[in-house]
Amino acid sequence: MRIDVLTLFPDMFQMPLSYSILKRAQEQNIVEIVLSNIRDFATDSYRKVDDKPYGGGPGMVMMPGPVFDCFEHIRPQASEPGRVILLTPQGQTLTQEKAVQFSAEPRLILIAGRYEGFDERIRTGLGAEQISIGDYVLSGGELAAMVLIDAVVRLLPGALGDETGAADDSFCDGLLEYPQYTRPEMFRNMKVPDILLSGDHGKIAAWRNEQRLERTKQWRPELYEKYVKGQAQNDK
Ligand code: 6GU
């Protein structure tokens, strides 16, 4: 997969991309992440990329020119046109289901905005879909783009050392994970549940399933309701 990121702050991406799974996935050519600085495509001597909104109002708006020029520079760099995604709080919320869909694409083109927003013609003219990472306001789309990249890249074949890894995650079937324990058996008077030490793999699997249901019901009742409805649907 190729992921292009159009941003005013490409340096913000260096740290998260240089550790752990994202680092290894790039080294192994599972993903190629190409950062482009929108400001490199500004045309005036001040390298201006934002301007006052028509009709008045507070703040500054990202100008369409530099974003279009940046986009048209990178688009022909790969044979695939790519799915164009604008990171904005107006977008649909990123879910595991969407991450799975994105992970099946050969190319994503992410556009991270700053300032009060994008000129509307960026969305319409580039045929972009909009994605948010939740109902709160960030100072820009960069952190959201990094969240999306992390969620997507770890799903690519070979990205996790252990191939079963992603299938076990919370949300892959709509339930939270079961509790995990490691050594020591007793820690500050807190003991590992006996069943995990029993060696009875059937009982352990059943216990873990119960725990997943119980925890989801208690902590994320809305996910639990959805899961139960889905199960009822499957039984029909
Ligand atoms: Cl994608 N951008 C901004 N600025 N704030 C957000 C967001 C994105 N997702 C949640 N909050």
CATH class of the largest domain: Alpha Beta
Ligand roster:
6-chloroguanine
Counted up, domains total 2
Segments where pLDDT lies below 50 for 5+ residues? none
The CATH architecture of the largest domain comes to 3-Layer(aba) Sandwich
Summarize model confidence as the mean pLDDT: 95
Which shape, going by the Cα principal axes? Answer: elongated
Helix-strand makeup class: alpha/beta
Write a brief caption for the model.
The chain is α/β, with parallel strands linked by helices and 236 residues long. Helices cover 35% and strands 18% of the residues. The protein has two domains: 2-153, SPOUT methyltransferase, trefoil knot domain (Alpha/beta knot, 3-Layer(aba) Sandwich), CATH 3.40.1280.10; 170-235, Trp Operon Repressor, Chain A (Orthogonal Bundle), CATH 1.10.1270.
Protein model, in words:
The chain is an alpha/beta fold and 236 residues long. It has two domains: 2-153, 3-Layer(aba) Sandwich (Alpha/beta knot), CATH 3.40.1280.10; 170-235, tRNA(m1g37)methyltransferase, domain 2 (Trp Operon Repressor, Chain A, Orthogonal Bundle), CATH 1.10.1270. 35% of the residues lie in helices and 18% in strands. It contains eight helices and ten strands. The strands form three sheets. It has a five-stranded parallel sheet with strand order 2-1-6-5-8. α4 links the parallel β5 and β6. α4 crosses α6 (142-153) and α7 crosses α8 (221-235). It is elongated. 23% of the residues are buried. The model has no long low-confidence stretch (mean pLDDT 95). 6-chloroguanine is lined by residues 87-89, 132-134, 136-138, 140-141, 144.
